[in-house]
UniProtKB/TrEMBL annotation:
Name the record gives this protein: Bifunctional NAD(P)H-hydrate repair enzyme
Key word Metal-binding present: yes
Catalyses which reaction(s): (6R)-NADHX = (6S)-NADHX; (6R)-NADPHX = (6S)-NADPHX; (6S)-NADPHX + ADP = AMP + phosphate + NADPH + H(+); (6S)-NADHX + ADP = AMP + phosphate + NADH + H(+)
Organism: Nibrella viscosa
Alphabetical UniProt keywords: ATP-binding, Isomerase, Lyase, Metal-binding, Multifunctional enzyme, NAD, NADP, Nucleotide-binding, Potassium
Signal sequence segment: none
Residues binding (6S)-NADPHX: 57-61, 128-134, 157, 260, 328, 379, 444
Coiled-coil ranges per UniProt: none
Cofactor note as given: Binds 1 potassium ion per subunit.
Native organism taxonomy: Bacteria, Pseudomonadati, Bacteroidota, Cytophagia, Cytophagales
Superkingdom, taxonomy of origin: Bacteria
EC numbers, comma separated: 4.2.1.136, 5.1.99.6
Cofactor: Mg(2+); K(+)
Name of the gene encoding the protein in the UniProt record: nnrD
Residues the record lists as binding K(+): N58, D124, S160
InterPro entries reported for this sequence: Carbohydrate_kinase_pred_CS, CARKD, Nnr, Ribokinase-like, YjeF_N_dom, YjeF_N_dom_sf
Length: 499
């Protein structure tokens, strides 16, 4: 699903109005009706509703929502925040209609702000995507009151005070909703870590804006929906054999961190690789052969760390279909040499994770040896070591984009809504996963998954988008079955489902 800028969304509204065609006021009515459908499916008429609306079209949506909810039997109190002298035309239209049905409260100064009780639902329609400067005056006081109140808060389109596609200032006053119900497409601001308390749980509702315009509009930002992830998944042909699915090599482990290799290897096997070889320090040999009997194990000549040498003759790096390197490897000089040799010899995309990334950060000349379309999977700290500090989440996205483009690689920046940057400079945000995944070893599982997908012939962007989605989905399954708190990386790899 595309993510558009505020300006593009404005054009999308206009295009829909002109080409459907539909009168703006009817589009507002459709948006309000769709919001009400969402609302009534979650909250019964037993909850009193308190609406706070502004004077623009977000406020107009609010007034139309109030009218429809009232007609459906909800008790609703309407509060209009008079932060400016002018209202939008569609606001005025809905204002006239609602005035015939109920009394409206006008908030012009702080002592007009009503008390909010804990069993009420607040609908926030003060500002929407038209916000273009920090909120002050009476609107600021209202937002502060709502944030202090014990009630549940639902924001219409976007939390009032939050910019959809640019950074807010540190002192900005912004609604902290429990839910955001947004029209048609997600806003980029919803996906950034620092905004999470200004978004809550968010839901997209389809208000039938022009599909043609969305299809034609270029954007670097995408949000992976479950349907899109499912479409990427390839079905197996009846006459396939293990050779069809590639032979992967995982370069993993060091003394005390063989478990990382076990997790990556198991995840690789659980993600459909045809054959798997694991190269690990000699101390990991018995562990791997026991814990992952399906994999072949190539013990390194070094007892404790990877040096890349092995007593067991095996196929050279170039002959593996895909290679993953990093889980548990540490940063020994022998291992840095191994990485240098690997990067010099292997020309297909690699998966590079964990200490392999830290070795790249410490040996910058290695960056230019990385094969094009390799997948790097840093968490934010590793990414900072590879690049630079950022000022805010938008700045981070720019750095991410430039980095992926400069080295022609795929960068999977891990976190809530993992951001996957492509060599072309696009960014795909993931939609699956939960905080339960923030536990040791889940990154190793991801490396195993991505290596398996590359081995099966997925291109790097497909592998990253699909692999990250499936990894999060497995975490969501575990979360539902046994909760997020006790989730382990083993649970996640056991929960992987590929159908
Ligand atoms: N255009 C359309 O066809 C549709 C728009 N919709 C709604 O319209 C919203 C956007 O409406 P608007 O563009 O009218 O803008 P808003 O309702 O978000 O804001 C109202 C106006 O307030 C002013 N303003 C901005 N920041 C301010 C601040 N800090 N203090 C005081 N005033 C400020 C601006 O002039 C802005 O236009 C969307 O979020 C959505 O809720 C929906 O009705 C769907 C259809
Ligand atoms: K709002």
């Amino acid at each position: 699903m595309k993510i558009l800028s505020v300006e593009q969304i404005r054009q999308l509204d206009q295009y829909t109005i002109q080409h459907e065609p539909i009168a703006p006021i009817n589009l507002m009515e459709r948006a309000a009706q769709t919001f009400v459908d969402w609302f009534t499916a979650r909250f019964t008429t037993s909850y009193p509703v308190k609406l706070f609306c502004g004077l623009g079209n977000n406020g107009g949506d609010g007034l139309a929502i109030a009218r429809i909810l009232m007609q459906q039997g909800y008790t609703i109190e309407v509060n209009i925040v008079r932060y400016a002298p002018r209202e939008s035309d569609d606001f005025m239209h809905n204002h006239r209609r609602l005035k015939l049905l109920t009394t409206l409260n006008y908030i012009e100064q702080p002592n007009n702000i009503p008390a909010i009780r804990h069993n009420e639902i607040v609908i926030d329609a003060i500002f929407g995507s038209g916000l273009d400067r920090p909120v002050d005056g009476i609107a600021k006081s209202v937002i502060e009151t709502i944030n202090r109140a014990p009630a549940k808060v639902v924001s219409v389109d976007i939390a009032s005070g939050l910019y959809p596609d640019k950074p807010n200032g540190p002192d900005d006053v912004i609604i902290e909703p429990d839910y955001t119900v947004t029209f048609q497409l997600p806003k980029i601001g919803f996906l950034l870590p620092r905004n999470s308390r200004y978004v809550g749980q968010w839901h997209i509702i389809d208000i039938k804006l022009s599909k043609r315009f969305i299809d034609q509009t270029p954007t670097p930002y995408f949000y992976t929906t479950p349907e899109e992830a499912r479409l990427l998944l390839r079905q197996r042909e009846r006459f396939s054999h293990k050779g069809t699915f590639g032979h992967a090599l995982l370069l993993v482990g060091s003394y005390g961190k063989i478990g990382a290799g076990v997790l990556a290897a198991r995840a690789c096997l659980r993600s459909g690789v045809g054959l798997l070889t694991v190269q690990a320090p000699r101390c990991g040999y018995a562990v791997l052969q026991t814990a992952v009997p399906e994999a072949m194990c190539r013990p390194d000549t070094h007892q404790y760390v990877l040096s890349g040498q092995s007593e067991i003759e095996g196929i050279p790096y170039e002959e593996f279909t895909a290679i993953g390197v990093g889980p548990g490897i540490g940063k020994a000089p022998e291992t840095a040499n191994m990485l240098r040799t690997l990067l010099s010899q292997y020309r297909n995309p690699l998966v590079i994770d964990a200490d392999a990334l830290n070795l790249l950060a410490e040996n910058r000349d290695l960056m230019s040896l990385i094969p094009e379309h390799s997948i790097l999977t840093p968490h934010p700290k590793e990414f900072e070591r590879l690049t630079q500090k950022w000022e805010n989440d938008y700045d981070k996205l720019e750095i991410l984009c430039d980095f992926a483009r400069r080295y022609r690689i795929v960068v999977v920046l891990k976190g809530a809504h993992t951001a996957i940057a492509t060599p072309e400079g696009d960014i795909h945000f993931n939609s699956s996963g939960n905080p339960g995944l923030s536990t040791g070893g889940t990154g190793d599982v991801l490396t195993g998954i991505l290596t398996a997908l590359l081995a099966q012939g997925y291109d790097s962007v497909e592998a990253a988008v699909l692999g990250v989605y499936q990894h999060g989905l497995a975490g969501d399954l575990v979360g539902r079955q046994r909760g997020q708190i006790g989730m382990t990386a083993t649970d996640v790899l056991d929960a992987l489902r590929w159908s």
